[in-house]
Amino acid sequence: SLIDLAGSEKATSDKDRTREGKYINTSLLTLGSVISTLAENSAKNKSDHVPFRNSKLTRMLQPSLSGNARISVICTINPDGSAVAESTSTLLFAQRIKRVQLHAQKKEVVDTDALLERYRKEIEELRKRLSEKEASQADGGPVLKRRLSAREQLDESLAMHNLNARIKQLTKLILTSQTVDENKGDESRPASPMKVDFDMSPYQ
After folding, report:
1. Cross-referenced Gene3D superfamilies, in alphabetical order (predicted)?
2. Residue/partner pairs of 84-89 with CB below 8 Å, 24 or more apart
3. Domain housing 46
């Protein structure tokens, strides 16, 4: 996205332009406040409230300024001597925004089929581990060559319980997903026509 921010507007004799300039300056002032808070939070590792909702402009920029994007800011100034105040204000704004640190993260697009396949592979791995533990207990494997303490027996029992619980959870997720897909297929299928008989005797 490309966003072109308006510059600060000076007061004019035109009523409509004055009202528009007021809104622009208010939005830019709020943006400056947001940038200052973000810069201070980054510098001091704080999480103070950021006033995004104080203007429409900052509400629109909130997803990007919250860290879900990579942002490049280009600040332009007027080299004319009569614009020293505006140029200084722009440079100070650039200095503040340079201190803001965002940590953009790539969003993972979840493919349902790939996710279900991952669940199935995890179930196979968990069942394999569970079978190995059960076989070790039944055959008196290396773990049981010495007598297990009460604590070790509890840990072993808890580990097997967790494996079983995870297998049940993944199986339920797979079945739920398949049911949802089947229902979607039924909704897209046109309904069969039905024959309806009306009792007309009261009207005859």
Report:
1. Kinesin motor domain
2. 86/7, 86/8, 89/8
3. 17-99
